Amino acid sequence: MNILLLGSGGREHALAWKLAQSAQCEKLFAAPGNPGIAQYAECLALDATDHQAVIAFCNDERIGLVVVGPEAPLVDGLADSLRGAGVPVFGPSKAAAQLEGSKSFTKEMCLRAGIPTAGYRRADSEAEAMAALDAFGLPVVVKADGLAAGKGVTVAMTREEAEEAVRDIFAGRFGSDGAQAVIEEFMEGEEASYFALTDGSTIVPFGTAQDHKRVGEGDTGPNTGGMGAYSPAPIMTPMLRAEVVSKIFAPTVKAMADAGMPYSGVLYAGLMLTREGPKLIEYNCRFGDPECQVLMMRLESDLAEFLLACAQNRLAALEPPRFSDDTAMTVVMAANGYPGTPEKGGAIHGIEQAEASGAQVFHAGTARGTDGTLVASGGRVLNVTAMAETVSEAQKKAYKAVDLIDFPSGFCRRDIGWREVERENAGG
Ligand code: AMP
Ligand code: GLY
């Protein structure tokens, strides 16, 4: 079949890389794609907000599966439009994508379904939010309700910080979506991610990962979309994984189906491993970026087969997916200035040498300059990804490849995976 992949980041490059290896994939299209994706796909300009244009393209090119990478088109209802037109699509409906698009929606569902998560109050005005702060001690977590590109969350250590975050939200800093706030109890523990595919009834666990959200080494400085990740996350033991499936994924899938908005696609659970057990921090309705890159490195099964089965409600008929037991690690090379205003246009060389050393380099924010050279065009620019038997070896291999890349206007963290490397060293 022909497949259309929507998106342009490192996550989409990893998906394209894997989809192109599928026996099911005849021709891969990507919109808009990027220079990395262009190695295996025909990249084209297609406005994902113009649903009729996407449908027309799918009809013209006999697209048998649309894979939606990022959350925005899903929250915007693109999957509904495609399903309505009879085009199989991997990704949830607009109603189901509220699991990512609205924090209060998810919180209410957790409450109804008894899913472990932080205690919360929803506030529709500044005064309500300020009053809600009284209900919690410190630290306290203040969140804008809608999609805020990961920037709408403040973990406030002081009352002043919390009040400032509340004022920011109601001053419209996160758009009209931010005119509601969720005030949450602070959960203490280590964070990990767990992914599951679901077609609305069957749940297929699809790997664990941990990422590094802060820009600076030692997990310091401002939050980013993620500066690196590894999979699997050994802290997610088989027992913990089983607990997350039974206490978090299963009741979610049931609650969504019961509410008449069955969830189809990938459920990305951000978890806090607290002393009382795993608790849900948040859901995303898409693969993580850069977590997807490490999952795809480890995936041995045919990705297209799973995504199509998901789209066609027949996950139950598939054998469980196979993943390598090795560790995959990805290091994000970002443009100077990120996560503020990243420097654009910086030249990049050496990707071939890095790949020859055994790594896989996914393009996240690259473009071709007028003379055809590769340049930086975004905040996160490259995801240098390697796989090895241990976390320490994967880390060495990834940084060896990083050092072969010549990207003078970029930077990366040198300590991706530090927690796991420390644990490995302590254990052996
Ligand atoms: P979110 O966008 O909801 O994933 O939040 C971003 C980050 O804020 C998470 O990855 C956590 O590090 C932190 N965070 C969010 N909610 C809580 C909470 N209730 N307790 C502690 N940390 C949180
Ligand atoms: N790496 C975090 C995310 O994709 O949301």
List the helices and strands and how they pair.
Elements: E1 2-7, H1 10-20, E2 27-32, E3 42-43, H2 51-60, E4 63-68, H3 72-75, H4 78-84, E5 89-90, H5 98-101, H6 103-113, E6 120-123, H7 126-133, E7 140-144, E8 153-156, H8 159-170, E9 181-185, E10 190-198, E11 203-211, E12 214-216, E13 220-223, E14 228-231, H9 238-258, E15 265-274, E16 277-284, H10 291-298, H11 303-311, E17 327-335, H12 351-356, E18 360-363, E19 366-368, E20 374-376, E21 380-388, H13 391-402, E22 410-411, H14 418-427
Parallel strand pairs: 1-2, 1-4, 2-3, 4-5
Antiparallel strand pairs: 6-9, 7-8, 7-9, 10-11, 10-15, 11-14, 12-13, 14-17, 15-16, 17-21, 17-22, 18-21, 19-20
The structure holds adenosine monophosphate (AMP) and glycine.
What's a quick, concise take on this entry?
This protein is an alpha+beta fold and about 425 residues long. It contains 14 helices and 22 strands.
What does this molecule look like?
With 428 residues, this protein is an alpha+beta fold. Helix content is 31%, strand content 27%. The protein has helices at residues 10-20, 51-60, 72-75, 78-84, 98-101, 103-113, 126-133, 159-170, 238-258, 291-298, 303-311, 351-356, 391-402, 418-427; strands at 2-7, 27-32, 42-43, 63-68, 89-90, 120-123, 140-144, 153-156, 181-185, 190-198, 203-211, 214-216, 220-223, 228-231, 265-274, 277-284, 327-335, 360-363, 366-368, 374-376, 380-388, 410-411. The strands form five sheets. Strands 10, 11, 14, 15, 16, 17, 18, 21 and 22 form a nine-stranded antiparallel β-sheet that branches. Helix 1 (10-20) packs parallel to helix 10 and helix 6 packs across helix 9. It is globular. It starts with a strand and ends with a helix.
